[in-house]
UniProtKB/TrEMBL annotation:
Record's protein name: Uncharacterized protein
Lineage top rank: taxon: Eukaryota
UniProt xrefs under Pfam families: Kelch_1
UniProt keyword annotations, A-Z: Kelch repeat, Repeat
A single GO cellular-component term on record: nucleus
Length: 420
């Protein structure tokens, strides 16, 4: 019934390797014991039923057996792993890899309910147990994800067919257990929502002020979008907060400067918007900081100076351990932001093989404690997509490792990282 042994996410947990191994072993052995016990009970009941010679006794025995089994199933459903009870069962499950959750959901109704209604992910978030998967699209209506902990590729269901939406500019955002893809349908903006819990696409909830070409970032179950342009091309300064659990949008105070084709990140519990363009095509070099507690915006001059050009992609930025990094696609360099001096420091080179067109077609993302560059060498016809990673360390130049490679389109249209 289980596809593989339970596995822990070592980088997401503060415990030692030895403690993690004990969690893995205990969870797996308890699951085996639970499944074995149920199997023995079923076999015993079958033998008892066959050996009953008297029809009346058989009926009575079957009735009692069904009643006992029903009570046992309800008890196991509540206790999850009956040998240790519900609370410790949940504590074990939280530390299992979410790669195993599909298999674990097959054990009993309690497991299924805990996983499918999102309760387990909410508990993981409270305990700060996070596992990051990379989601990206190299074809117009297809998405796939990569699990760096298992080295596993997962194909998502195809998006619902919509020619206008597929051919429009799209933005993507992973928040909570959802992947949101924003695009246009003729003259209206629409949102498609992929749910990790149901492994399916459905219409998402539209913003209060629909837009495209905005800056965005997520933090847990919440995300912020800022700037962009509306259906008529007007450049916006407005911002909104999305709550994935409530599936609702809340309007926030507006930025000081309207901007589109900008980028967003969370850092030090604040939201930042970098770069972008104004309505007259002027390239912005400033950034803006939004304080979630105070509800105010602050302009930071020259925060995105030199990160992108007038015809290039929005700034390619990512945050690891509350440090801001950028991929300078023109110079093929990795840079780090010096918060105290408001300057960018060159650290070294980007991986050589992934190519881009002024930054378009290349993804630069934070994936837990590592930076990920996703792209591919230029090729005729169907190409190759590669994932390169580097764990930043102070005073150490980037050393990129190719962690995955597969046949695919080599141009990355959209990319997001889901941490849950």
């Amino acid at each position: 019934m289980l596809e593989g042994h339970s596995c822990l996410i070592s980088r997401a947990l503060p415990s030692s390797c030895e403690q993690e191994s004990k969690w893995v072993y205990m969870t797996h052995r308890l699951l085996e014991k639970t499944i074995s016990k149920r199997s023995v009970d079923v076999v015993s009941e079958e033998h008892t039923e066959i050996e009953e010679k008297d029809l009346g006794r058989r009926k009575k025995s079957l009735k009692l057996s069904n009643s006992s089994t029903s009570k046992s199933d309800r008890r196991e459903s509540h206790d999850l792993i009956s040998a240790i009870g519900r609370d410790i069962s949940i504590s074990c499950l939280m530390r299992c890899s979410r790669s195993d959750y599909g298999s674990l959901a097959c054990i009993n109704q309690g497991f299924r309910s805990l996983i499918k209604d999102g309760e387990l992910y909410r508990l993981r978030r409270i305990k700060k147990i996070t596992e990051h998967w990379v989601y990206f699209s190299c074809n117009l209506n297809e998405w796939e994800s990569y699990d760096p902990y298992r080295g596993r590729w997962i194909n998502l269901p195809k998006m619902p067919p919509n020619e206008c939406f597929m051919c429009s500019d799209k933005e993507s955002l992973a928040v909570g257990t959802e992947l949101l893809v924003f695009g246009k349908e003729v003259t209206a903006h629409i949102v498609l929502r992929y749910s990790l819990l149901t492994n399916s696409w459905s219409p998402g909830v539209g913003m209060n002020s629909p837009r495209c070409l905005f800056g965005s970032a997520s933090h847990g179950e919440k995300a912020i979008v800022a700037g962009g342009s509306d259906a008529f091309g007007a450049i916006l300064s407005s911002a909104e907060l999305y709550n994935s659990e409530a599936q609702s949008w809340t309007t926030l105070p507006s930025m000081n400067i309207p901007r589109k084709m900008c980028s967003g990140v969370f850092m030090d519990e604040k939201f930042y918007v970098l770069g972008g363009m104004t309505s007259n095509g002027e390239l912005l070099t400033s950034g803006e900081e939004y304080d979630l507690e105070k509800g105010t915006w602050r302009i930071i001059p020259n925060m995105s100076l030199g990160l992108n050009g007038a015809t290039g992609a929005p700034p390619l930025i990512a945050v690891v351990n509350n440090e801001l990094y950028a991929a300078h696609y023109a110079q093929q360099e990795v840079m780090k932001y010096d918060k105290g001096n408001n300057v960018w420091i060159t650290l070294g080179r980007l991986p050589e093989r992934p190519m881009s067109m002024n930054g378009w077609g290349l993804a630069f993302r934070a994936c837990g404690e590592q930076l990920i560059v996703i792209g591919g060498p230029r090729a005729l016809g169907r190409g190759v997509i590669e994932l390169h990673s580097w764990i930043p360390k102070d005073g150490v130049a980037p050393e990129w490792n190719m962690i995955a490679r597969k046949q695919s389109g080599s141009f990355v249209y959209n990319c997001a990282v889901m941490g849950c």
